[in-house]
Amino acid sequence: MSRQVENENVPAAEPRESSPKILAQEIIERLTYRIGKDPKVAKPHDWLTAAILVARDRITDNWMDSTRKTYESGRKRVYYLSLEFLIGRLMRDAITNLGIDEALREALGTFGVDIDVIAQLEPDAALGNGGLGRLAACFMESMATVDIPAYGYGIRYVHGLFRQQMSDGWQVELPETWLAHGNPWEFERRESSYEIGFGGSVETVNIDEEVTRYLWKPAERVIATACDTPVVGWRAKRTNTLRLWTAHPIDPILLDAFNAGDHIGALRESNKAESLARVLYPADATPAGQELRLRQEYFFSSASLQDILRRHLQQYPDFTSLPDKVSIQLNDTHPAVSVAELVRLLTDVHGLSFDQAWDIARHTFSYTNHTLLPEALETWPVPLFERLLPRHMQIVYAINAKIMIEARKEKRLGDEAIRTISLIDESGDRRVRMGNLAFVGSHSINGVSALHTELMKDTVFADLHRLYPQRINNKTNGITPRRWLMQCNPALFSLIREAIGDAFMDDAEELKALDAFADDREFQARFAAIKRDNKVKLAQLVQNRMGVRLNPSAMFDIQIKRIHEYKRQLLNIIEAVSLYDQIRSHPELDWVPRVKLFAGKAAPSYHNAKLIIKLANDVARVINNDPAVRGLLKVVFVPNYNVSLAEIMVPAADLSEQISTAGMEASGTGNMKFALNGALTIGTLDGANVEMRDQVGEENIKIFGMTAEEVSKARAEGHNPRAIIEGSRELSQALQAIASGVFSHDDRGRFSGLVDGLYSHDWFMVAADFDAYAKAQREVDALWTDEAVWYGKTIRNTARMGWFSSDRTIRQYSKEIWRAG
Fold first, then answer.
1. Other residues' Cβ atoms within 10 Å of the Cβ of residue 69
2. Contact assessment for residue 570 and residue 612, using Cβ atoms and an 8 Å cutoff
3. Using one digit for the tens of pLDDT, what is the confidence trace for 721-737?
4. Fold classification of 482-804 (topology level)
5. Residues labelled as active-site residues
6. Record keywords: Metal-binding included (predicted)?
7. At what angle do helices 766-784 and 729-740 cross, to 10 degrees?
8. I want to staple 266 with a disulfide (CB 3.0 to 4.6 A). Which of 120, 225, 258, 725 is the partner?
9. What is the mean pLDDT of residues 368-394?
10. Is there a contact between 653 and 782 (Cβ–Cβ < 8 Å)?
């Protein structure tokens, strides 16, 4: 924040009028003077940019007012550090929260411009991958909505994750080009630039007999520059900042080398710097990929912390008040290096002692854990970490010594416990445990669902929980109802508003009033008509993109999420093969028409996940073209899953697939989005499904399969998946068809390894849960045949999902962790 806010002579902007007439005038002004287009020749993308700029001006007024008020009040600021912010398109979000959506529609209409058409031209910001990034985006909107001063910090990826295409059913990764024509929402902040170092050496400087300082001399340096996007809350109560970092070299071109003819070498430093902000999650199967990923994490963490400390010193004399005025939330382990970096900045740059810096850090940081998968709790090889961040390696060792001495002396923990809490994993190649670093460097560690939080205490952080028993707490995830009901399903939103009034728009838990309409046949009919219209829209998208015709009267059974074995898309596909066999074998039965839709991306180096995508497409090709099925079953994998696609698929879902192996999904937020939009959930007792069952009632959700405790016991004692498969006629037949090449005529052994894994170990309990899953699916079929029963249940899902608003989640964070109220 600039010191200009201290100047009381700077007047605040007067609120702008937002009548259709005024908006129309401003649109023409922006079109003419900012875009340089005569309205007579303006293209749809020109009208979109002009409309965004008009909305942005109003957001900016609110943004500056929010910033001034925070400064003047001295309120605590929250800083949310995340490697992902899956914000999607912003225009509808912004104009809805500003309350100018209808006026802007009318203003554009005076020029013959349809806002719905131009809104589709806005690029989907490629700043995230899945649930973690979308959660961060929902949290940013909710922090503004509930009036918490906040900054989100991340990286401004030029290409993001990747654009997914299919080639003969295989995933192909292509660069995402969302920034090809710029981003009208953002503001570059050249004054907010910081130097970031890598490599080099550390020198010792003896200040006096008692004080020693350390001087890090990096071998490489890059510049991080901020780009700010304003995030406006509901009813424009507050506007916060999403600050994303771009990377630039100190010297953009080595002119001597260029003039000598080494044109590639002359740009080497420029390319190396810019690679930091090119791609989200570079493949880390190679040493070069691992190094780039660690560089990215340190790059954005260091820039963010330097920015936070600069802002604090503008307002306060020293850092003793930092924990009282600043709360830094680490979203997963990606920014965990921030713990060591804050200690470095406070000691090496600002002259505090190590003990002072460590005490400030522990009271300032809090950490959200998103996974129980050990491989997802990042670790880095010690030689890589030490070469790239030599000073931070020293600090990690110093922190580790402090923690281990405390654990040994004060808590009397044994050797095994000491080994597990250590920041250095000595079990094989020595590695730095970033999850442990985040844990010991934070005053609060939260899980994201009740089950996940309890499992954290017993599994990945069991000994750290013994050492610090008060730190772990739960904050069940939530979603913003503005994006995931009001904007993505406007017809349903209007129906609800007509039925129960406007109170739910400000407090999502007021949706409970809709319960009274669950069995009302007229309301059910209108609810069903809206669902069908949404399914028609999705069917049109599938036909346009893929040439596959879908029947909107069929049950739309949807599983959209990152492709991973624990999320068990494979279980869903195997059940589709089994159902295919049953439909062909028993044509006389009254089968429920069903469309199984999948979407999601597999990590480029995750072989089995990419093979599962190929299997889904191969199964789809066979089933969709078999006349014996009579159109009763279709399978579709929709490529390039992103927020905009989710906004079409979620409202169209009849059945929501939340079928992860119990004990492995931290929370899930897709489950909440589907249920809020009137889908029935079929799922395991995993993640937030447990709390969803409690909220919607166990009669309104279809739960199947092993519990987390049963999964853990089966793994510990050893189970016999071969016996399970051979004991299930439908499962064994489906697996035999897949393994023998029924769906892969061009390579009959393509999926044999995937199937062999189920016979040999079945770590994710696909075979173990198959019969229960297939049985639950046939029970869903029975429910579908009774419309009154089906819509009674799905309406109750919508009515009872208000507790899962991210507004509630953020209020809990603020009250119980950040103390930022």
1. 15
2. yes
3. 999 999 999 999 999 99
4. Rossmann fold (3.40.50)
5. 370, 561-562, 567, 669, 673
6. no
7. 110
8. 258
9. 94
10. no
- Cβ atoms of 636 and 595 within 8 Å: the answer is yes
251: confidence class by pLDDT, cuts 50, 70, 90 = confident
SS3 658: strand
- Sign of CA pseudo-dihedral 717, 718, 721, 722: negative
Q: Residue 618 has which token pair?
A: 């191969």
Does pTM top 0.90 for this prediction?
A: yes
Find the angle CA(659)-CA(663)-CA(667) to the nearest 5 degrees.
70
Residue 788 to residue 779: CA distance in whole angstroms: 16
**3-class state of residue 231 by DSSP:** strand
Q: Which residue has the tokens 């070069």?
A: 288
Instruction: Find out whether 415 and 425 touch, Cβ atoms under 8 Å.
Output: no
Tell me the CATH class for 75-90+125-476+811-818: alpha beta
Q: Where are the beta strands (DSSP E) in 250-348?
A: 326-331
Whose tokens are 């009274």? That residue is 516
Amino acid identity for residue 179 in this structure: L
Q: Which parts of 708-782 are beta strand (E)?
A: none
Could you tell me what percentage of the chain is helix, strand and coil, using 3-state DSSP and rounding each to the nearest 5? Answer: 55, 15, 30
Backbone φ/ψ region at 700: left (φ over 0), alpha (ψ -120 to 50), beta: alpha
Closest among 565, 582, 608 to 762, alpha carbons compared: 565
Q: Provide the 3-class DSSP secondary structure of residue 16.
A: coil
Question: Tens of pLDDT along 388-435?
Answer: 999 999 999 999 999 999 998 877 788 999 999 999 999 889 999 999
Is pLDDT of 2 > 50?
Answer: no
Radius of gyration for the alpha carbons in the chain, expressed in angstroms and rounded: 27
Residue 140: Cβ within 10 Å count: 26
In sequence order, the β-bridge partners of residue 366 are: 329, 444
